[in-house]
Amino acid sequence: MTTVLTTEPVPFDLPREAPQQVCENLNQWLTDLIGLSLRLKQAHWNLRGPRFKSVHEQLDEILADVRKASDDVAERIVTIGGAADGRPRQVAEHSSLGSFPPGQLGVDQAVEQCCSDLAATIRRGRACQAALAGLDAVSEGLAIDVLAALEKHHWLLRSQADRT
Ligand SMILES: [Fe+2]
Q: For residue 1, is it within any domain?
């Protein structure tokens, strides 16, 4: 996916190629963050079975942080002169998340699915963070902050999995 840059000059001392590369990496990650937020709500709604209430509420807690993360990433793109691209088709075509099962989900199935989706978003976020290193420390710092929150949520949700 190609990021559109605005015509306004960026009022910071970023390396010449940095805005384009930073924005492209962040826009790629944005598709996963938006896709993840849709999946968390899908699981939140269709959950069935034991531990319903705690997992139902936990999924919304994760969602709040994922939505905040997608907003922060999108606004960082615009801040450094790019256009954020959260269009539904971009999310469908560029998100690294796979298919999501339709209909009702058992609690264990939902936990496994959402852990897998969180892990995929984290993997891509870590690749994004590595690409940002040396290009723009502030964008990299944002990526690190978002990753710390997502990784903690992954641990908290993984701890709900019934692996006995
Ligand atoms: Fe709800």
A: no
How much distance in Å is there from the Cα of 57 to the middle of ligand 1?
8
Amino acid of residue 101:
P
Q: Report yes or no on 12 lying in a domain.
A: no
Count of structural domains within the chain: 1
- Phi and psi dihedrals of 5, rounded to 5? -95, 150
Domain with 125 in it: 18-158
60 CA distance to ligand 1 centroid (A)?
7
Of 22, 16, 29, nearest to 132 (Cα)?
22
Taking only the tens place, the pLDDT of each residue in 84-136 is 999 999 999 999 998 999 999 999 999 999 999 999 999 999 999 999 998 99
CA distance 7 to 60: 38
**CATH number of the CATH domain containing 70:** 1.20.1260.10
Look at residue 2 and tell me if it is in a domain. no
**pLDDT one-digit tens code per residue, 6-64:** 666 676 777 777 889 999 999 999 999 999 999 999 999 999 999 999 999 999 999 99
Q: Is the pTM of this model over 0.90?
A: yes
Pairwise CA distance, residues 78 & 81, whole Å? 5
CA of 121 to the centre of ligand 1 (A): 22
- Which residue type is seen at 59? L
